[in-house]
Design brief:
mainly alpha, Ferritin, 6 helices, 0% strand, elongated
């Protein structure tokens, strides 16, 4: 059964992460960087993130409803914190290496979510897998752009 209150609570946490993305947009600085050919076009990011935020909020709601998600929801809280940090570090401060460290933390906590959520609800774990894949792509992109633009380490 859908618990809208829980769902919107988790979605609000995602909204904080999305807000940092809106406040610290790529802009001219990012456009001027040397990026790999496989960099997704700009319009893809808001579409993907909106879908992922809805899926991960629903997954967290399922885990919370189970009554046995304490540690798993702790991992969820940690991943959304790292998610919230990345845009200000990368786009705001232009510190690609520090952003890569934040991305590594994000990736580890998303992986922890996938594993712990699967132990509670296979659906919840499965809903987090696309997020892990996207964060993997984002991490590879962060690393590639860092290597191509060492002045912004």
């Amino acid at each position: 059964m859908m618990d809208w209150g829980l769902f919107f609570t988790f979605l609000a946490a995602c909204g904080a992460a999305a807000a940092t993305g809106a406040m610290f947009q790529p802009g001219d600085w990012y456009e001027g960087l040397n990026k790999p050919r496989w960099t997704p076009p700009g319009f893809v990011f808001p579409l993907v993130w909106t879908t992922l935020y809805i899926a991960m909020s629903y997954a967290a709601m399922l885990v919370a409803q189970s009554g046995q998600g304490g540690q798993a929801l702790g991992f969820w809280a940690a991943q959304i914190a790292f998610n919230t940090l990345w845009s200000p570090i990368f786009f705001g401060l232009h510190r690609m290496r520090a952003a890569l460290v934040a991305m590594a933390g994000l990736w580890l906590f998303v992986l922890a979510c996938v594993i712990s959520f699967c132990q509670i609800s296979l659906l919840a774990g499965a809903l987090m897998v696309p997020y892990l894949l996207w964060v993997s792509i984002a991490g590879a992109l962060n690393l590639s752009v860092l290597r191509r633009n060492p002045a912004y380490a």
